[in-house]
């Protein structure tokens, strides 16, 4: 029997038992992480250097790329290290840091996606007020609010999770530290209920953001369909499709992971779903935006 005061490390779930497969996972993760770092780095450089992208959407896209880079840098280094060195351990403090930063960047990304939806709503439904409602100061305040809300949400969950006594061993059924798997090791009923309460609050906040996104897009599509010219409708839709695709990817991968079968599911299925929602969105977001945004494509071509 162990508790959190004497626990010095956790055991993560290995991707494979065979050495050849472990090295294959290392090279695969290395390729994905380098591609994601390169793509998000190019977007950051393009937005920073090209004055055509010094717009509210460009500013929020820069912040979105920062959250994607944060997610990649939080998950991949330890997973690659374990695959390369044939180990599954992570220190107690390293696990706490991984939980905090992953929750922080994922929460901030969701709030930023909600703000970017507001940007599209104002641009299409209230174009005459765009400069007033989304000035540089307003954009900075909204981005700061997204980062602050993500920080607070992550801090509350991490502090509560790692204050619980752990008496069910130290083996996590996941390739990175995640709150639900750590809660399974807890023997504190009250602490578990506190975390459930925090989760319900977070879910309620997330549902509020989702309702706002859906309502905004209903208004956006109604406004676009009233545009008389086909070229105008196409241009309006093309400015919204990347954001809608990124939001759909973010939510669908998270929902698939949350709706996976309970304890009777295979470890390989758990790993596949975990990779789906923790790796796929940060890696694909830059590609989605660069394919549909002509100004971004022009800036990348210049670079």
TrEMBL record:
GO molecular function: G protein-coupled receptor activity; olfactory receptor activity
Pfam families to which the protein is assigned, alphabetical: 7tm_4
Domain G-protein coupled receptors family 1 profile, chain residue ranges per copy: 39-289
Localization per Swiss-Prot or TrEMBL: Cell membrane
Principal subcellular localisation of the protein: membrane
Topology with respect to the bilayer: Multi-pass membrane protein
Keyword Translocase tagged: no
Entry GO terms, CC: plasma membrane
SUPFAM superfamilies the record matches: Family A G protein-coupled receptor-like (SSF81321)
Transmembrane segments: 26-47, 59-77, 89-113, 134-156, 196-218, 239-259, 271-291
Keywords: Cell membrane, G-protein coupled receptor, Membrane, Olfaction, Receptor, Sensory transduction, Transducer, Transmembrane, Transmembrane helix
PANTHER family recorded: OLFACTORY RECEPTOR
UniProt record similarity statement: Belongs to the G-protein coupled receptor 1 family.
Function: Odorant receptor.
Protein name, as recorded: Olfactory receptor
Native organism: Pipra filicauda (Wire-tailed manakin)
